[in-house]
Automatic annotation (TrEMBL):
<comment type="similarity">
    <text>Belongs to the LDH/MDH superfamily.</text>
</comment>
<dbReference type="GO" id="GO:0004459">
    <property type="term" value="F:L-lactate dehydrogenase (NAD+) activity"/>
</dbReference>
<dbReference type="InterPro" id="IPR015955">
    <property type="entry name" value="Lactate_DH/Glyco_Ohase_4_C"/>
</dbReference>
<keyword id="KW-0175">Coiled coil</keyword>
<dbReference type="GO" id="GO:0006089">
    <property type="term" value="P:lactate metabolic process"/>
</dbReference>
<feature type="binding site">
    <location>
        <position position="95"/>
    </location>
    <ligand>
        <name>NAD(+)</name>
    </ligand>
</feature>
<feature type="domain" description="Lactate/malate dehydrogenase C-terminal">
    <location>
        <begin position="146"/>
        <end position="303"/>
    </location>
</feature>
<feature type="binding site">
    <location>
        <begin position="9"/>
        <end position="14"/>
    </location>
    <ligand>
        <name>NAD(+)</name>
    </ligand>
</feature>
<protein>
    <submittedName>
        <fullName>Lactate dehydrogenase</fullName>
    </submittedName>
</protein>
<dbReference type="Pfam" id="PF00056">
    <property type="entry name" value="Ldh_1_N"/>
</dbReference>
<feature type="domain" description="Lactate/malate dehydrogenase N-terminal">
    <location>
        <begin position="4"/>
        <end position="143"/>
    </location>
</feature>
<feature type="coiled-coil region">
    <location>
        <begin position="279"/>
        <end position="306"/>
    </location>
</feature>
<dbReference type="Pfam" id="PF02866">
    <property type="entry name" value="Ldh_1_C"/>
</dbReference>
<dbReference type="InterPro" id="IPR022383">
    <property type="entry name" value="Lactate/malate_DH_C"/>
</dbReference>
<keyword id="KW-0560">Oxidoreductase</keyword>
<dbReference type="InterPro" id="IPR001236">
    <property type="entry name" value="Lactate/malate_DH_N"/>
</dbReference>
<feature type="binding site">
    <location>
        <begin position="119"/>
        <end position="121"/>
    </location>
    <ligand>
        <name>NAD(+)</name>
    </ligand>
</feature>
Length: 307
């Protein structure tokens, strides 16, 4: 069976995601789609050279929205860069418009089992909008959410603790960005609750949370966009889906009790987000999750009313 992944948006993020997918030979074919056909074709040729030189079993080519809609996974990276100096409102409205346009172009061609992966920002808003526009089942519309933030946090914490990152179980959850939070109450270190393994006075948790949250801004200021980290997690998500690995990842999915899409740990397989893993949060963390989800719903309703 031939597996295909489409990437809509052949800019820096889309191309880097394609490169990560090629290196891992995640799918048989990777299709690039972009309204700027010269850029799309140039990226496809460049990445094809990389595929041959790395002996990847994946092949990459330019494609249309029609072809993209027929793929196993459709990754949406298309959107404006999160440039310093631009307001979040400006970014949000431009990217919502782009998202709706590309989904409408692909929607008639979606398969019953197509998985839609939203990577553009603001990811929670866009994933919620994508769910409504695409008509796909809730489990098949997911966003990259706080996966990269969680990976980054584990690395930062591992450095301070003098241990390997894979020995730490910790998630950044909620609405990705300024209001995201760390689920310290559910965190573990070597399988032991983190409060016991790393007493609270050994690490400045507030400083660590701020550092994790604002690394993205530092990267954007330095090089214009985040690409390598996003590319790596996109490849990981797609591998989990196509190979039905049942990995647990903190991703943006629709949460019925909250009424919108936010990041919580989900079991990831061929049918998308198979189920949400309940996390035992303390009262403060629960309150943060509920309040930020409520604010997100208000924001989404406002956007829907104005577009």
């Amino acid at each position: 069976m031939i597996t295909r992944i489409a990437i809509v948006g052949a800019g820096t993020v889309g191309a880097t995601a394609a490169y990560a997918l090629l290196l891992g030979s995640v799918a048989n074919e990777i299709l690039l789609v972009d309204i700027k056909t010269d850029r799309r074709d140039g990226q496809a040729h460049d990445l094809s050279d990389a595929a041959y030189s790395t002996k990847s079993s994946s092949r990459i080519r330019s494609a249309t929205y029609h072809e993209a809609g027929e793929c196993d996974i459709v990754i949406i990276t298309a959107g404006s860069k999160q440039n310093v100096g631009h307001t979040s409102v400006e970014l949000e409205y431009r990217n919502i418009s782009t998202l709706k346009s590309v989904i409408h172009a692909m929607k008639p061609h979606f398969r019953h089992d197509t998985i839609l992966l939203v990577v553009a920002n603001p990811v929670d808003v866009l994933t919620t909008i994508a769910l409504g526009v695409s008509g796909l089942p809730r489990s098949q519309v997911i966003g990259s959410g706080t996966f990269l933030d969680s990976v980054r946090l584990r690395g930062l914490l591992a450095d301070k603790a003098g241990a390997k990152a894979n020995s730490i179980g910790i998630y950044v959850l909620g609405v990705q960005g300024e209001t995201q939070f760390i689920a310290w109450s559910a965190a573990t270190f070597g399988g032991v609750p983190i409060d016991k393994a790393l007493p609270i006075d050994t690490i400045d948790r507030i400083e660590l949370a701020d550092q994790c949250k604002h690394v993205a801004r530092t990267i954007i200021q330095a090089k214009g966009t985040i690409s390598f980290g996003i590319g790596a997690i996109v490849a990981s998500i797609c591998s989990s889906i196509l190979n039905d690995k049942r990995d647990v990842r903190p991703l943006t999915t629709f949460q019925p009790d909250l009424g919108c899409c936010v990041s919580l740990p989900v079991v990831l397989g061929r049918k998308g987000a198979i189920r949400t893993i309940p996390v035992e949060l303390n009262e403060e963390e629960k309150k943060t999750l509920e309040e930020t989800a409520k604010a997100l719903k208000v924001e989404i309703e406002q956007v829907r009313g104005e577009l």
